[in-house]
Design brief:
Layout: H1 11-15, E1 44-45, E2 56-60, E3 65-73, E4 76-85, E5 88-92, E6 105-108, E7 114-121, E8 125-133, E9 138-140, E10 154-157, E11 163-166, E12 169-170, E13 173-174, E14 178-181, E15 186-188, E16 202-206, E17 211-219, E18 222-230, E19 235-238, E20 251-255, E21 260-268, E22 271-279, E23 284-286, E24 300-303, E25 310-316, E26 322-330, E27 333-336
Antiparallel strand pairs: 1-5, 2-3, 3-4, 4-5, 6-7, 7-8, 8-9, 10-11, 11-14, 12-13, 14-15, 16-17, 17-18, 18-19, 20-21, 21-22, 22-23, 24-25, 25-26, 26-27
Length: 337
Amino acid sequence: MGVRGFALISAAALAACGSSGASDATPPPSPDGHPTATATTPPRIVAAPAARLYASMAADEARHTLLLFGGATQAGDLNDTWSWADGRWTQADAFPAPPARGLAGLAPDGGGRVVLFGGEQGGTRTLGDTWLWDGASWTPVTATGGPSARSAVAMAADGAHRVVLFGGGGAGGRQADTWLWNGTRWAVAHPPVSPPARSAAAMAFDPTHGQLLLFGGAGAAGDLGDTWLWDGTTWRPLHPPSSPPPRQGAGMAYDGASGRLLLFGGLASGVPLNDTWLWDGTGWTLAAPRVSPPARAYAGLGAVPGNGPLLLFGGQAAAAGGLGDAWLWRGGGWAPI
């Protein structure tokens, strides 16, 4: 799947994610040319990250911030690390850093760290490496036996403080396997029921209702609009009375203020969306905010820890190139930053 041309992504393209390049799990040396070092320098405060799509975003619960890593621009893939807190961005100058990539999985592990997995480079090479962020530096995980190299996985922490990973696309096509991160290594799960294979699905945990929800993605026959629940042992299909239209590349995060999950945007048959949907534990409801962000897919979306607002950043619009705008969801509405 190429990111250099910034063409709108089709379900067929995601099916071949990484199929034209290497799929080994060991990443190449960092492409930015920095030496491998353990020392860190103080973070620097700047205006905002550069415009991009395919970036990864997750809550850094131990530090009460949102973490943003990498993504893609017209100039190439990125491996920069950013934190959002108190209304401003801070870039961390920590080395070593994971190699540049987009479409990686990112989630807090419940032990004070954030886990990064996989992704793709240049639209052709899929990665299978795992890195841990401790608030100051990245550390590569050397344990073997994890998921195969892939990108566009669904990844989130569940109520038991485990990271759950589902699906994604790699050299073997889309996957339908479930993996659990226990703090030190990955272990494959064997649920009796699983969603169909897919990539670019949305997944987030709803602590109000104790639900880890999976929605949509790119499937074998096109975009998907199904809703699944992970109960810690198996997947269960849900059949809500109303649902968002099928899509891939949507963002989903928990809104602590309302106690509901929020889903925004994505691609539907190659067309970017800007609709906002809310999950109340039993069904989806289409929100009607007075103002909405422009349509986009593959944006960063995360909740500021401690019932803070949701932050939406960047993504892919209908026109070529990535977006660099940021929006906050709070009080039932969107507001640009």
